[in-house]
Amino acid sequence: MPVQDNDDKRTADQPAVDAEEEFRRKQAQAQEQQQEESGAQKSGKLLPILNAKAEHHQSRIDSLDEKIANQTDKIDRNKAKIEALSAKADKLEDTNRMLKATIGNLPGIGAIIANNEKRIQAIREVKIPKRQEKIDQGWKKIDTLTAKRDRIEHKLNRVIALNDTIKSFSIGFNKERREAFADAMTRLNRATVDCLSDKKNALVAQKDQLMQTYNDPATSMADRFRIQQKINDVTKRVTDLESKIMKLARPETHYAEQTNDLLDASMKLTGDKLAEMADSGNLTMPALAEETVTAAQKVETLDRSKVAELADQLGIQPLSNAEMQVEDDYNMIDGIINNGSKEDVDKAKEKLREGIRNMESIVDNDFIPQEMRENAAAELAKMKQQLSLLDSSDEVFVESSLATMLDNGTAELTDNGGFKVNADYYFDLPKDECHFETLTEVQAMEVISALTASAVDFSAMSKGNDKVSLVVAEKDVPVLNDIMFSTIGKVARTAAAKENAGKGEKGKYQTINPEYYASLPKDERFTSAKPAKTAQAITAELEKAGVPFSAVVRRNDTIAITVRKENAPAYKRIESAVKATLAKERVPVSPAKVQAKQQPKRSAPQRQGTAFLSRSDMQKEAQRVRQQGKKQDKPAPAKKKDNQGLE
Predict the structure, then answer these.
(1) Using an 8 Å Cβ cutoff, are 517 and 562 in contact?
(2) What is each CA distance from 435 to 517, 520, 524, in whole angstroms?
(3) What is the pTM of this model?
(4) C-alpha to C-alpha distance for 113 and 101, rounded to whole angstroms
(5) In terms of Cα–Cα distance, which of 257, 268, 264 is closest to 295?
(6) Contact yes or no for 15/2 (Cβ under 8 A)
(7) Confidence bin at 500 (pLDDT 50/70/90)
(8) Could you give the C-alpha distances from 346 to 185, 327, 335, 391, 393, in angstroms and in order?
């Protein structure tokens, strides 16, 4: 609904015309604000480049994760082989002890024992050490691959933080925009420092190698002179990087603890810098990140008046007048308008309504003392006033968002007291390709903001009755469904949602977001079943990334996660990251444990070197040895068995 001034004297016949003229006057007086919006739009042109770069880094990480997993499998196989070899050696040692204790003096038994001892020696001193060497090499390869993966992950984090910094400019609500910007800049600052540290570490390693070559006695004086020049150059680069790291590094809470004016001024400067770099074509990721962080930190050198001027130029304070009217202290943390999430506000409303009902029952009860009823009446008036203020927050949010769109020129007021957003798109879209959704004004503003950030074309129209008709193309319905579900918890009115409505919600298996699963056609579902621990970590990351999903717990203690097929790449990236994190938690077997497994095992208790065997077993063994001795007295056959030992 349109914003009105308290001193507005317009008649009831011309409410929309006067409001439109008022917004146009404001637009004409806010040239610097328009320049900032233009700068934000220019910086938005960087988003496709950043997305492509993020995809490239993620593909490299996926490849490295696969190589790390392969090396881990090889290590596990070698460990299993070592255990099998150790068991085999233990068995041969037990056999030798038994033979020595029983029939060691018989002819031919000494040769069998000697042959077994050779095999034991080969296992203990050759085969197991070779396997252990392969394990050590495998861990070295994993360390190398992990270090490379960490460097690429730092670059990916830098790109994602840049992307989120630019996206924060399009958020219409003051508090949410500042929080998103502060979070993105915190991550960008950390990722930028990490990337610079990686570069410094590589130069330090290069310097160490040069020093080693320089100190080699075989290096000639002429070569040492050239190497010394390289060492000086690398040393200077390391020093420059250390200076840059010290200059850019900030505590994790740096942006979160800044005042609103400082954050607004930082947004103004970073938006201008990103727009300038987009125009100049300077699009290298290190330059973009470092210049953005430097621009944001520039406010620390400005005086208060300049900071306030930049904050005003940003023009992101449409709620200030309304807040000052309903708050004792502007920008105070009170959980009413600019503090707390919408979910928190809804919970506060419900508690207030319940409290009002309880107070009304006390006020209307004649059996309660008069003094208590008077206190309840005073408290009831306060609670009703608080509820009125909370109810006004939704109205203020709608007015703020509408004012921003009117200033941008994307929205216009209608004669019936409503508004239109991107009306030309609706008229240009063929009727058979239109998809309609009916939302409340608050829901519509949330969805419109997300659609704008996602670059999805749409039209919206309101008749001033708190109902907004939203139109997108049929091809964009899947994206709209994801946006609606993640922003307002509502699924789009698709054929699949209508057909599957209610299915699976009351089944015998535990489900998460079953309504989202029902809204997806079968050919648009991507489902993956994972162990419970892995699935829980994946779903947590999906929620952080804003990827809608559905999940069901199966009987075999696995969880099946479903996302839309177009979100499958994002799911796979998150899955790979989770697997890599879990793989890092695996503790390698220490050499001490391997050595312990290689120690001889005693298969049976012994006393004074005599084995405890039954009489029948001893008779069978003696008979077997006698037969073996008779065979040795006979002429050797054409082919002789290589292995005559007992195992």
Answers:
(1) yes
(2) 20, 16, 18
(3) 0.47
(4) 12
(5) 268
(6) yes
(7) low
(8) 30, 18, 11, 9, 11
Q: Which residue has the tokens 């919600």?
A: 505
Dihedral angle computed from the Cα positions of residues 442, 445, 447 and 452, in that order, rounded to the nearest 10 degrees: -170
User: Residue 25 is encoded by which pair of tokens?
Assistant: 């006057």
Residue 559's DSSP bridge partners are 530, 553
Helix segments in 409-494, DSSP class H: 423-428, 441-453, 477-488
pLDDT tens track for 385-440: 777 766 655 666 676 677 777 777 778 887 777 888 888 888 888 888 888 888 88
Q: Phi then psi for 229, rounded to 5 degrees?
A: -65, -40
Residue 322 has pLDDT above 50, yes or no: no
> Would you state the structure tokens that stand for residue 537, as one six-digit string?
């970590």
CA atoms within 13 A on the CB side of 209: 7
| CA pair distance 459, 78, nearest whole angstrom | 62
DSSP string across 593-647 = HHHHHHS---SS-EETTEE---HHHHHHHHHHHHHHHHHHHSPP-SS--S-----
Write down the residue that tokens 């621990």 correspond to. 533
CB 424 within 8 A of CB 376: no
Q: Could you tell me if 516 and 550 are in contact, meaning their C-beta atoms sit under 8 angstroms apart? A: yes
> What is the Cα–Cα distance from 110 to 96, expressed in whole angstroms?
10
- What's residue 172's pLDDT? 67
Q: Region 258-280: what's the mean pLDDT?
A: 85
Q: Phi/psi zone of residue 590: left (φ > 0), alpha (ψ -120 to 50 degrees), beta? A: beta
* Residue corresponding to tokens 């074509």: 281
Instruction: Classify residue 123 by its DSSP letter.
Output: I
The closest alpha carbon to 514, from 584, 580, 561, belongs to 561
Cβ-contact 210, 227 below 8 angstroms: yes
109, amino acid identity: I
Alpha-carbon span 521 to 495, nearest angstrom: 8
Q: List residues bridging with 610 in a β-sheet.
A: 607
Q: What sign results for the dihedral spanned by CA atoms 444, 345, 328, 169?
A: negative
Residues 6+ apart with CB under 8 A from 624: none
Quote the tokens at residue 198. Answer: 């990686």
Closest by CA position to 274, among listed 140, 416, 170 = 170
Q: Which tokens go with 133?
A: 């060497």
